[in-house]
Amino acid sequence: MKTDASGVLQWQKKIGGNLSDEGRSLTFAVDGGIVMAGDSNSTNGDISELHGGYDLWVVKLQPELSVSEINRVTMNLSPNPVKDLLQIQLTSGRIPEKTTITDLAGKTLIDSDSTLINMQNLSSGIYIVKVISQNETFTQKIIKE
Q1: Beta pairing partners, 14
Q2: Which of 85, 116, 118, 130 shows a CA-CA span of 20 to 30 A to 3?
Q3: CB atoms within 10 A of CB 99
Q4: CA-based nearest residue to 15, from 59, 49, 54, 51
Q5: Strand ranges (E), 5-135
Q6: Nearest to 1 by CA among 37, 38, 26, 18
Q7: Can you give the pLDDT at residue 43?
Q8: Average model confidence (pLDDT) for the chain?
Q9: Structural domain boundaries of the chain?
Q10: Which stretches of the chain drop beneath a pLDDT of 70?
């Protein structure tokens, strides 16, 4: 569903059938659409057949183009892969307020409020960069050479 800034319903879409269907995770696709993963126990509606007790379901909704969605804030990390210094940029003039870099196990390795992060003391590998700006969180993988 989508609402305007006042909370008035703009549109809604029901996906699934008449039994237990649950969306468990949402993310934005590169094109601005929404990808949802979940499970289903239905055999009607959008679901053509059931292959077991509960089936995994992945659904992609196409983007509805509007000015607010086209101007969605994105995060750019450069360079990627990085050797020493990582530059963090957010679009729409936003400034990162807090940056956390973790390993793939979730261990926090760096906390910073800067847009330039020194990563030279980290081992080569894959890390997760999490940036908070204006109560919004942006997450992306980075490769350290």
Answers
A1: none
A2: 130
A3: 21
A4: 59
A5: 9-11, 21-28, 34-40, 55-61, 75-78, 85-90, 98-102, 108-112, 116-118, 125-133
A6: 26
A7: 67
A8: 80
A9: 2-70, 75-144
A10: 1-2, 11-14, 16-17, 43-55, 63-72
User: pLDDT value at position 45?
Assistant: 65
Q: What are phi and psi of 68, to 5 degrees?
A: -65, -35
Matching residue, tokens 């910073």: 112
pLDDT at 64: 61
pLDDT of residue 127: 94
DSSP 8-state assignment for residue 30: T
Question: In this predicted structure, what is the pLDDT of residue 67?
Answer: 41
Architecture in CATH of 75-144? Sandwich (2.60)
Task: Give the span between the Cα atoms of 21 and 55, in whole angstroms.
Answer: 9
Residue 22's beta-bridge partner residues? 39
**What is the reported pLDDT for 70?**
45
CA 73/CA 93 separation, integer angstroms: 9
- Residue holding tokens 């050797």? 83
Taking the CA atoms of the chain, what radius of gyration do you get in angstroms? Answer: 20
Structure tokens at 40: 């289903």
As a whole number of angstroms, the distance between CA 114 and CA 56 comes to 41
